Amino acid sequence: MDLSNFTSVGGNSVNWEPKQKGSTKEKNLEALKSGKTSYIVGYYLETMHDQGKDGKSMIHKIKLVKVGDVKHLSGEAEEGDTVSIWGTGVLNDRMIKNVTPGECILIKWEGKVKSKAGREYHSWDIMKDPNAEVISVGEQFSKPAESPEPAVTATEASGNSDEDDLPF
Question: What is the CATH number of the domain that holds 87?
Answer without folding.
Answer: 2.40.50
